[in-house]
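Notebook entry, structure prediction.
Reason for the run: the old model in the group folder had no record of what sequence produced it. Starting over properly, with the input documented here first.
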Amino acid sequence: MSGFSVRQSSRAKRLSIKVYPRGRVEVVVPRRTRPTDVQKFVEAHREWINTTRAKFAADHPPEPFALPTSVHLPGIDRAYCVRYERDDGSNSVRYRVRGNTLILTGRTNDEPLCIAALKRWLIALGKKEFLPLLRSLSTQTSNSFRKMHVRGQRTCWGSHSSTGTISLNYCLMFLDPRHLRYVMIHELCHARHMNHSQRFWRLVGSFEPAYRKLDKDLNSSWKRIPAWLGIY
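New structure, fully documented this time:
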């Protein structure tokens, strides 16, 4: 079977497969797993993958690609109109924000360049909006962090490294503010417990009693991410 990606994980103890709502298939494997073992694992689960893809296709009809004319970000209570100003003499696409309007200028007939500019904007906006909230929650929970990064991860909403760096997915801006807050609390709690032990979940629950429901919601929240981002 073709059309799947492989992600090595130091935490993985066995091979696993994840099918995303728009059909992307990811295989998570322990480090140093042989490619032949990955292929055999995928082939053994071919029927399940095809069934899951078909189910998702029924629930999520394919969306035609289109550059956005507006971007709604419930997580930070912001909405923007997007305007494109074409300049055939440019080889790049730049962005600027004027009020609630995001303006892309340059080679705007090049869709990949436009998407790259939109992602740069989301990263910059995420850094501006996330950091004050993360600092506030850090104080409230007495869980520290050293740095914050904003990225567009394909496989997770956030992470906390052993060096104290919290990485947050800019896609959280497309979700409900409760989910954004929960992910921040979750990652901050890893400052004390770098695992998902019972002690870790008790700590999370002390700051967010509804963590079970919010965590479950996140599994299906990728469908809220617009297709133009190409996240899944």
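Summary: Residues 4-59 form one domain.
The old model has been moved to the deprecated folder.
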